[in-house]
Specification:
This protein is an all-alpha fold. It has 6 helices and no strands. The longest helix has 17 residues, at 101-117.
């Protein structure tokens, strides 16, 4: 297999971001696309390249068009997420872990109120 490059790492990062936003674990995503946890991990890290067919399948599972994984590639300035991006991803993951809809609604309303205060 060819060695992964910056594009492979970018696509892997986008997969990871979307998976976290949906509140899926790596194991859950691996199960949904029919690969091992280790393979899903290697995809997200950009260690292994993803075939076109597999990327299409991942896009379907994550509910995005294939082009989503390439967004931002042309103006990319490094592979590390900023502290703010990490915080936003963690917030999304924690929000999706809240099982009580009333609590989700309350948190959403709180965020709107805080944003309106500036």
């Amino acid at each position: 297999m060819n060695r992964a490059n910056d594009t492979d790492r970018h696509v892997g990062t986008r997969i990871r971001e979307r998976r976290i936003m949906l509140g899926l674990s790596q194991q859950q995503m691996a199960d949904l696309i029919g690969v091992t946890y280790q393979q899903a991990h290697k995809y997200e890290r950009g260690i292994n390249r993803i075939s076109a067919g597999r990327l299409f399948e991942i896009a379907q599972v994550l509910g995005v068009p294939v082009g989503f994984f390439y967004e931002g590639l042309e103006n990319r300035r490094g592979s590390d997420l900023s502290a703010r991006q990490r915080m936003c991803l963690e917030l999304a993951r924690n929000f999706t872990a809240i099982t009580n809809e009333r609590h989700q609604d309350a948190l959403s309303q709180l965020a709107r109120a805080l944003a309106a205060e500036e």
